Amino acid sequence: MTAxxxxxxPSPNNRIAITVAKEEEAxxxxxxxMSMVVKAVS
Length: 42
Prior knowledge:
By secondary structure, this protein is mainly α. The protein has one domain (12-41). It has helices at 2-5, 12-41. The longest helix has 30 residues, at 12-41.
C-alpha cells in the first residue's frame, strides 16, 4: 500500500505524455485561428 501512496518517479512514459501534450497544444494553437476564421466567414 505504501507504493501506491508514494509518487511515481519520472519515467520515459511521463516524458512521452509531456511531449504529446505539447504537440496537442501546438495543434490546438494552429487550429484555433482557423476555427475563428470559419466562424467569422459563416
